Amino acid sequence: MNIQWYPGHMTKAKRAMKEDLKLIDLVIELVDARVPLSSRNPDIDDLGAGKARIVLLNKADLADEALNRRWAQWFTERGLHVVKIDARNKGTLKQIQAVVQEACKEKIERDRKRGILNRPIRAMVVGIPNVGKSTFINSFAGKACAKTGNKPGVTKGNQWIRLNKTLELLDTPGILWPKFEDQQVGLKLALIGSINDEILNRDELALELVSFLNRRYPGVLAERYQLENAGDCDTTQVLEQVARQRSCLAKGGELDLPKAARLLLDDFRSGRLGRITLEEPETAKDKGEKDQDG
Ligand code: GDP
Hints:
Bound molecules: guanosine-5'-diphosphate
Largest sheet: 8 strands, mixed
């Protein structure tokens, strides 16, 4: 992720998105299924007011399926249409079609009453960096037979990707900024690899991951790295064991913990530790709800 967010940048991005939003009927919001809340920006509720809304739990292939279901329910309870997807898999796009029709039912009905038939639904993809917006649009575009050209009123450079007679997608996604003022959000986005590792302490990040896995997914590390009594060890000892088992050794033969940290994070991010979700719906607070922790 190479974007440095600062207030001016955010204001500009927000303004551009507001312009694009004027053109569309449907907001397709991508979130990362491993961190469905931390990968959102609540501003989308204001930005998307009055539009049909769909939330795509993307990278569902990497997330815990039981939690995918609970998160889907959580979003549904908040009046949003939800689909779990793997944006790289074109097959899952079919599922979205039915939900699009459902989400836009009112608009389609309104059009019908006015005698407007078959006007395609126009949609825009939005989300924070790295949630899979481009992958999703490419999957769509790859399937689409034609790109429609620039049209009057369409922001310069934008094109509509026509998927079929009923759905067109803006080819440029709207980029939302993460809630990076919240440290826990920053930590989770770093764990999934959405924030540049260079600016973070990778060793600390790996220890956070060990601590989380021991709490929520006990046994995962022991199984993957053949660790003994991992449950009784502190996080540093676990990382040392990983280093030993994977022969992460520095020159003099001592353990290379930074290397083990990198290996562990890579294994997690690529799904080699299994399907893991970092946050649960219970921790989610609704807007305006009193913060019980502080
Ligand atoms: P953007 O910044 O929102 O446009 O995100 P990208 O489309 O560039 O995707 C970021 C990374 O996530 C890329 O490496 C994609 O291959 C990967 N990715 C996107 N969608 C999925 C998905 O559903 N599952 C998995 N496993 N990887 C995905």
